[in-house]
Amino acid sequence: MAIRRKQDFPVHQVRRYLEPGPIVLVSSAWKGETNIMTMGWHSVMEFSPSLIGCVIAGGNHSFELIRKSKQCVINLPTVEMLDTVVDIGNCSGADTDKFARFSLTAQPAEQVDAPLIGECHANFECRLADGKLIGKYNYFIFEVVKAHVARSPKHPKTVHYMGDGQFMVAGEVISRRARFRPGML
Amino acid sequence: MAIRRKQDFPVHQVRRYLEPGPIVLVSSAWKGETNIMTMGWHSVMEFSPSLIGCVIAGGNHSFELIRKSKQCVINLPTVEMLDTVVDIGNCSGADTDKFARFSLTAQPAEQVDAPLIGECHANFECRLADGKLIGKYNYFIFEVVKAHVARSPKHPKTVHYMGDGQFMVAGEVISRRARFRPGML
User: Fold this and answer.
1) Contact between chains at B22 and A21 (C-beta distance less than 8 A)
2) For the segment B22-81, what is each residue's pLDDT rounded down to a tens digit?
3) What family, per the record (chains A, B) (predicted)?
4) What is the per-residue pLDDT across B100-109, written as a single tens digit (0 to 9) for each?
5) Is B151 on the interface with A (CB under 8 A)?
6) Is B116 a member of any domain?
7) Within 13 Å and on the Cβ side, how many CA atoms surround A16?
8) How many domains is chain B built from?
9) Does A122 map to a domain?
């Protein structure tokens, strides 16, 4: 897999990539250790500040890295990376350096200490905005503070998890822009 | 659009339909009034109890109906309903009976007073499980208490909103079941 060259992207527009509901890879760092986990339970919560809510189960090795560092990067993989996405979810950062094992490139982020995954289509640098629901629901509310997106393709083939080992691959993109009332886009 | 015949579906498996991130239609009822809104900001939060978190902006007419009744139904439309989905988001329940205007069939639910939308592929009856984040984030945590899913097609063509009037239509479904470590599905 090749490293994708990225450009800056407005943080208040990350819904473009996250609202359709793709599986993402969450990278984290704490005291010299890094990790990657797969995540499917996330949603946009606000445009500005750019808030993303997500569940990170306590059993994940990443849970403590993210809880303690109060940071992560949400990375957007595409279908060419699907086997890697599955394999990342199959092993634990407790005994595996996932960047090394899966030959992924850790690139420095700008606003956080967690690394970007170079091979992903997009990288969203996040800081914990509200941790009040971590205890009860493992629910983290992050603010996206910096976004990087590859110039092409325009419509990346993201993968969307359905459970039971099945993934839906992003299909045709159609516009209904002309049908929307202004202000409702 | 035809009414879809449904069968009962296990509530702890609703991720099958919601985790891929489709646009949904939320129906509600309060004191004899019903309404429908489109929603894209939702995610699975737990299998059992079956929890779904979602943002319902305060400007929506549905907000007060759902907040007061503490109930709603999350309905899953498919691409044949896309124009209706857009049009539902373009008008307000304050001055429109959306079931009548869009010729949608309100069917009685089993566990809640909000109606099912008969033409949708699936209907998930929800009761408010936690309203603590409504004030700060318009964030509702629902428990799915009853699920109804059409027998076919197996893979409904859901639509996934990207903002700016653009929708991604659900594409190919591929399995990596054999690649998963048992227990990680």
Assistant:
1) yes
2) 999 999 999 999 999 999 999 999 999 999 999 999 989 999 999 999 999 999 999 999
3) Belongs to the flavoredoxin family.
4) 999 999 999 9
5) no
6) yes
7) 17
8) 1
9) yes
- From A54, A10, A1, A2, select the one nearest A28 (Cα to Cα): A54
Position A184 in a domain: no
Selecting from A41, A160, A180 the residue whose C-beta is nearest the C-beta of B86 gives A180
**Does residue A161 belong to any structural domain of this protein?**
yes
- Which residue of B139, B169, B185 is in closest CB contact with A164? B185
Q: Which of residues 94-123 of B touch A (CB under 8 A)?
A: none
Q: What residue type is assigned to position A142 of the chain? A: F
Q: Which residues of B touch A40 (CB under 8 A)?
A: 15, 19, 44
Cα–Cα distance measured from residue A114 to residue A79, given in angstroms and rounded to the nearest whole number: 23
Q: Where are the alpha helices (DSSP H) in B24-157?
A: 61-69, 82-90, 98-101, 134-137
Nearest to A175 by CA among B165, B176, B3, B95: B165
**Which domain, by its residues, includes B130?**
6-179
Residue-wise pLDDT tens digits, A133-179: 999 999 999 999 999 999 999 999 999 999 999 999 999 999 999 99
Mutate to test the interface with A, among B44, B47, B168 (most CBs of A within 10 A): B168
Query: For A41, which of B45, B161, B177 is closest by C-beta distance?
Result: B45
CA–CA distance, A177 with A184 (Å, rounded to integer): 10
Instruction: With CB atoms and an 8 Å threshold, state whether B160 touches A40.
Output: no
Q: Kindly report the length of chain A.
A: 185
Q: Would you call A2 helix, strand, or coil by DSSP?
A: coil
* Torsion A59-A61-A67-A72 (CA) sign: negative
Task: Write the CATH number for A71.
Answer: 2.30.110.10
Q: 3-class DSSP state for residue A15?
A: helix
Using one digit for the tens of pLDDT, what is the confidence trace for B80-134?
Answer: 999 999 999 999 999 999 999 999 999 999 999 999 999 999 999 999 999 999 9
- Alpha carbon distances (Å) from B92 to A70, B62, B105, B115: 39, 9, 18, 18
Return d(Cα A41, Cα A63) in angstroms, integer. Answer: 14
**Strand, helix or coil at A120?**
coil
